[in-house]
């Protein structure tokens, strides 16, 4: 078993908390495994009861850590867990956010073991949600657990918001934030739902992409038609959908929806130089993903294409006969799920309208085509020089002994923009999963080293934030 504990003479965190962490290591590992066993898949209605179970699991642990005002907030869809530990008068208040819902586990056959029967083996937690994002919730809880065990009071005031709809657009949380502004008052928001950089280099994420998710439905007739009797005389919805999808994005990686790039904040030469300086190994990235070749947007590097540029992808398509053998039909209908990843300052609603209009324009006659908005969230961009970002950088540097990098991430955490725009909080994206964690894919895993070190970074970060004093973080 690898030992992650720090020797007392080089201990980057309070030595009393370090020794508590050593003693509690099996307990926090068991907690993560127990939590990851709950199939809290937010997008599947049959898992609604599991969403409540997961919320109650978190709430019970917050209570056990001495949190007050703990509440499992019922919403129109999945619950939100709220709680606070405000025991440091005069110290800054941090709003801590993670999510306890997970992506669907399919395709199940590609998992080594069942996705909701997680295990810890050879230094890895494996199971749906261990990295995204349950492991990170447990790191926050474990940091507090060790502080309590060491007889310490958290040196900053902590307000927790853990939600169950992050993988489904965070709609309930958005509706809840505005009327609860007072309970959410803080100096800074800390979001732990990101990870380290390629090669597992400690990182702080300063930019996230937004998202706009839609569905395209192509309808021909109430039932499938005989392709011998009708073929050639009617439009085929699957062919029509293929033509529509092909029109959305060119082979150069450029999205062809008119107006799509209008609001994009241009990268400066400095931005591009900073991205180019990151230790990104394209060949290793390709090998890791197992794809035959990487494709970027023409004129941009692979790293820019996957983090700092907007893009569009088909997430799924279905139509007609897909079984073994042959069935000669013209499908009655065809469908595609399409999502765009957006950058600052693209507006998801505006991008959707542009997509809808363009689909209507390129759709062939002979079929009825509708485009429906599913969910969306804005991109975010946080200043690297903010004192809270710098405090997080010091915590990472102390625990890992290396300089953390400031990165842009291609994924989306829609709530980031809400914390920024509705609550007026600076947001620090401090997450701990390793980049090859298979988030949203089979065999999702979290390195125990990241779990252990991340817990220590959180302990150190609260001390760093406390040392700024109440006034320092500011908006
Ligand atoms: Zn996540």
Description:
The chain is of the alpha+beta class and 475 residues long. It has helices spanning 15-36, 48-64, 134-149, 171-177, 227-230, 237-248, 269-277, 282-289, 302-307, 348-362, 387-400, 415-421, 448-466, and strands at 68-73, 80-85, 93-99, 119-121, 124-126, 157-163, 188-191, 203-208, 210-219, 225-226, 311-319, 329-330, 333-342, 368-377, 380-381, 405-409, 427-429, 445-447. The strands form 5 sheets. Strands 1-2-6-3-7-17 form a 6-stranded mixed beta sheet, sandwiched between helices. Strands 11-13-9-14 form a 4-stranded antiparallel beta sheet. The protein has a 3-stranded antiparallel beta sheet with strand order 4-5-18. β4 and β5 (124-126) form a beta hairpin.
Coarse structural class: alpha+beta
What oligomeric state do these chains adopt?
single chain
What is the tally of beta strands? Answer: 18
Largest sheet descriptor: 6 strands, mixed
The small molecules bound here are: zinc ion
Task: Average the pLDDT over all residues and give the rounded result.
Answer: 94
**Shape by Cα distribution:** globular
- Helical residue percent? 25-40%
Unreliable parts: none
């Amino acid at each position: 078993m690898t030992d992650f504990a720090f020797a007392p003479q080089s201990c980057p965190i309070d030595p009393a908390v370090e020794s508590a962490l050593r003693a509690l290591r099996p307990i926090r590992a068991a907690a993560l495994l127990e939590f990851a066993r709950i199939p809290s898949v937010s997008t599947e209605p049959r898992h609604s009861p599991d969403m409540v179970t997961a919320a109650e699991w978190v709430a019970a642990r917050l209570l056990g850590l001495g949190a007050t005002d703990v509440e499992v907030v019922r919403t129109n869809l999945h619950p939100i867990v709220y709680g606070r530990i405000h025991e440091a008068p005069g110290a800054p208040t941090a709003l801590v956010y993670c999510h306890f819902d997970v992506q669907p586990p399919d395709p199940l056959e590609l998992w080594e073991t069942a996705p909701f029967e997680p295990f810890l083996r050879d230094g890895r937690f494996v199971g749906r949600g261990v990295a995204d994002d349950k492991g990170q919730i447990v790191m926050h809880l474990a940091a507090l657990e060790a502080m309590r065990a060491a007889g310490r009071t958290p040196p900053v005031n902590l307000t927790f918001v853990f939600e169950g709809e992050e993988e489904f657009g965070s709609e309930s949380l958005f509706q809840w934030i505005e009327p609860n502004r007072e309970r959410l008052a803080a100096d800074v928001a800390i979001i732990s739902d990101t990870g380290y950089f390629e090669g597992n280099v400690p990182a702080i994420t300063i930019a996230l992409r937004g998202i706009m998710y839609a569905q395209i439905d192509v309808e021909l007739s109430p039932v499938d038609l005989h392709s011998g009797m009708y073929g050639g005389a009617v439009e085929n919805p699957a062919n029509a959908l293929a033509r529509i999808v092909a029109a959305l994005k060119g082979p150069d990686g450029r999205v062809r929806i008119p107006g799509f790039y209008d609001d994009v904040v241009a990268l400066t030469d400095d931005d591009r130089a900073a991205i180019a300086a990151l230790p990104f190994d394209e060949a290793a990235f390709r090998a890791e993903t197992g794809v035959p070749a990487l494709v970027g947007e023409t004129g941009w590097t692979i790293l820019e294409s996957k983090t700092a540029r907007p893009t569009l992808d088909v997430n799924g398509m279905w139509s007609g006969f897909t079984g073994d053998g042959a069935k000669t039909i013209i499908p009655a209908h065809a469908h595609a799920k399409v999502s765009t990843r957006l950058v600052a300052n693209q507006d998801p609603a505006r991008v959707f309208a542009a997509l809808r209009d363009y689909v209507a324009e390129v759709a062939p006659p002979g079929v009825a085509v509708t485009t429906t908005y599913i969910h969306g969230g804005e991109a975010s961009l946080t200043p690297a020089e903010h004192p809270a970002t710098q405090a997080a950088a010091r915590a990472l540097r102390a625990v890992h002994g290396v300089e953390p990098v400031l990165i842009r991430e291609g994924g989306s955490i829609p709530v980031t923009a809400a914390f920024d725009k509705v609550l007026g909080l600076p947001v620090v994206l401090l997450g701990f999963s390793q980049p090859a964690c298979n988030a949203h894919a089979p065999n999702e895993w979290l390195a125990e080293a990241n779990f252990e070190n991340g817990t220590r970074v959180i302990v150190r970060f609260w001390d760093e934030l406390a040392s700024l004093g109440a006034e320092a973080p500011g908006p």
